[in-house]
Write a structure and sequence with these properties.
Helices cover 44% and strands 15% of the residues. The chain has 13 helices and eleven strands. The strands form two sheets. Strands 1, 2, 3, 4, 6, 9 and 11 form a seven-stranded antiparallel sheet that branches. It has a four-stranded antiparallel sheet with strand order 5-10-7-8, with no helix packed on it.
C-alpha cells in the first residue's frame, strides 16, 4: 500500500477536517501538500485559498486562486475570491475590475447560497461605484470636447462611454438571410437622414381615418406569423397563426394587395413617395401592424440590413413600448422613426386596447444609390436560383 502521508486524497481529507475544526494553519499545510501531489485539483486550490485567507495570508490566498484559474480561467468562485482578496489589499480599482469580470461568470441569483449571494451583491455595489467614478473622471477631463457635440454626437458618445463601462450590450446585426458589409449597427437612425418623414407624418390624419374604417369591418387582416407545420418556430410558438398580432397588408412581397390597397388610397399615395426597394418577391412592403391587448412580440431580428424599417404610430394606448438593441422608446402618434431590424428588437402592448402602427421598408441611406441596382440584382439572382421568384424577376 502507498504511504498515506503522500496520498493527495488522504491529505486533502485531513486538511478539510482541520479546516472544519478551525485549525487553519494545519489545514493550509495539509492542503498545500495535497496539491503538491495533485496540482490538478481545482476545488483543492479554492480550499487552500480559503485557509490562507482565514489566516490573513492574502499573498498565499492569491497564489492559490492563481492555481485554480490556471486550471479554469472562467471559474466563478476563483474570480470572486481573487476580487475580494484584491479589495482586502486595498487595491480598490483593481478589485472593482476583477469584480466586474467575476460577475460575467456568475450563475443566476436563485442558484447561489446566502453567503455567495451577499458576496455577489457586494461585487455589484463595488462595480457600480467604480463605473460612476470612472465616468465622472472621464467627463471632467473631456468637458470642453463633449459640450461641443450636437444631439446625435452626444448620444453616440454616451453610448461609447456606456459600452466601455459595461452598461450597454453590444448588439450585432444578425440578418436571417442577407448581410451587406460595411453598414453600421444603429438602433434608431437620426431623422435628418430621412427628409421624407415629415411628408409622411403630415398624412397621419388621413391614414388614421382610412385605418379606422378598416378596423370597423375587421376584414382583410391575417395573423402576421404564419409558419407551416414542420418548421421550427422557437419564440413564435405563441403567436403562430394567432390574430393577437395581425397584419393588414397593403404591399406584400413586392406586390400591391388589391382590395386592401383600394380601401386606403391616401395611405397608398403617402407610401408611394417613400424610397422603398423594388425587389421581386420581397419588397416593397407596407402594412398596418395590429397588436392586440396584453400581447408581446418576442425578441427577434429581420431578414436583411440592406433596408431599414419605418414605423408611423397611428393608435397607441398607454402601456405600449418598443426596444431595439439597448434603446427602448414609446411610440407617439404621428411621430415616425426608422430603425435597423437586423438588431434584436421586441414590442409590447400591455394595455386593454389595440395598438396599430404603419410599417414600411425603406432603403438604408448608407448604401449609395449607385450600389443599389447591384444589391437588387444579387438578391434577385439568388432567389431565382432557389426558385422563389420567377426568372422574369431578373
Amino acid at each position: 500500500m502507498g504511504d498515506p502521508a503522500a496520498d493527495p486524497k488522504a491529505l486533502k481529507a485531513a486538511g478539510m477536517r482541520a479546516l472544519g475544526a478551525g485549525d487553519v494553519a494545519a489545514a493550509r499545510d495539509l492542503l498545500r501538500r495535497a496539491l503538491d501531489a495533485d496540482p490538478s485539483d481545482l476545488p483543492g486550490w479554492l480550499n487552500l485559498g480559503g485557509a490562507c485567507r482565514a489566516m490573513g495570508d492574502v499573498d498565499g490566498a492569491l497564489q492559490a486562486v492563481a492555481g485554480a484559474l490556471k486550471l479554469d480561467a472562467r471559474n466563478f468562485m476563483a474570480l470572486l475570491m481573487r476580487a475580494s482578496l484584491l479589495e482586502r489589499q486595498g487595491e480598490a480599482r483593481e478589485a472593482a475590475v476583477a469584480y466586474s469580470v467575476a460577475l460575467t461568470q456568475a450563475p443566476p441569483d436563485a442558484r447561489l447560497d446566502a453567503s455567495t449571494l451577499r458576496a455577489v451583491q457586494h461585487a455589484r455595489t463595488v462595480t457600480a461605484a467604480y463605473r460612476a467614478d470612472l465616468e465622472a473622471f472621464v467627463r471632467e477631463r473631456t468637458t470642453d470636447t463633449l459640450t461641443n457635440l450636437d444631439a446625435g454626437g452626444a448620444a453616440r458618445t454616451q453610448a461609447f462611454i456606456d459600452s466601455r463601462l459595461g452598461r450597454r450590450r453590444r448588439f450585432e446585426q444578425k440578418p436571417a438571410e442577407f448581410f451587406y458589409p460595411g453598414l453600421p449597427a444603429i438602433e434608431f437612425y437620426d431623422r435628418a437622414e430621412f427628409p421624407f418623414l415629415a411628408d409622411l407624418e403630415a398624412a397621419t390624419d388621413d391614414i388614421r381615418a382610412e385605418l379606422r374604417a378598416i378596423l370597423e369591418s375587421d376584414a382583410g387582416s391575417t395573423p402576421y406569423i404564419k409558419y407551416p407545420d414542420g418548421l421550427p418556430i422557437d419564440q413564435w410558438a405563441e403567436l403562430n397563426h394567432n390574430p393577437r398580432w395581425s397584419a393588414y397588408h397593403l404591399l406584400e412581397l413586392g406586390e400591391v394587395v388589391g382590395e386592401n390597397a383600394d380601401r386606403c388610397p391616401k395611405t397608398m399615395a403617402a407610401i408611394a413617395r417613400l424610397p422603398q426597394p423594388q425587389l421581386a418577391g420581397r419588397s416593397p412592403a407596407a402594412m398596418f401592424s395590429v397588436l392586440r391587448p396584453h400581447t408581446r412580440i418576442p425578441p427577434h431580428t429581420g431578414v436583411t440590413n440592406t433596408r431599414l424599417v419605418l414605423h408611423l404610430p397611428l393608435i397607441v394606448p398607454p402601456g405600449c413600448g418598443f426596444r431595439v438593441g439597448n434603446e427602448t422608446r414609446e411610440w407617439q402618434v404621428g411621430e415616425a422613426w426608422v430603425f435597423d431590424d437586423t438588431l434584436e428588437h421586441e414590442a409590447w402592448n400591455d394595455s386593454d386596447q389595440v395598438r396599430v402602427i404603419l410599417i414600411c421598408d425603406v432603403w438604408t441611406p448608407r448604401i449609395p444609390a449607385a450600389e443599389r441596382p447591384a444589391v437588387v440584382a444579387v438578391m434577385t439572382a439568388m432567389d431565382a436560383f432557389h426558385g422563389t421568384v420567377p426568372e422574369a424577376g431578373l
